[in-house]
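1st attempt posting a full record on here, be nice pls
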Amino acid sequence: RDYKVTGVQTCALPIYDIILSHLRFEGFWKPGDPGINGNGALQLVGNNPGSSNLVADHLTISGANDVGLDVWGAVTNTTLSWNFLYKNRHPTTISYHPDPYLYRDCISLHHNIYAQNWERNPQLRADSRRIEVADSLIADWEDGGTHPPLGLTIRAEPGEPSVEAAIHGNFFLAETAPEAALV
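the predicted structure (as tokens):
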């Protein structure tokens, strides 16, 4: 069945042992629309003491503005697998910014499809440890208008903690900006 959820659902407590599977999230963002930070579909968030043992599997996410399927804050032992993320502004960010930095550790992204998104296909940033991006298709990153389109990105601004990642077995396919496949 298709359900429409409106409004913002948040949980300030740490979450543990959660499996989300075979769900579809559809937002209202269309390519060319302005960006709205913090507006999106699904965000797995950990504050101190953190969240762990999370699985997002066989999800379909489209039309997300700033958050498609994000992992944010202190999150460990998490898997994002067999998901289809298409026509999103920012489909996946693995990050926590700004200070204080809360680390993400032991996160696997595998067998996902990223297609016709603007950027962050996914983006790894700021004190992310033991991250794996494997066996995924990253295709046709789109021009967002304000800067060139980007495929998979690893971002570290001056003063930010580093990212530790294993990136292997992925297939990059682009009609425009192939040089931006892995930045």
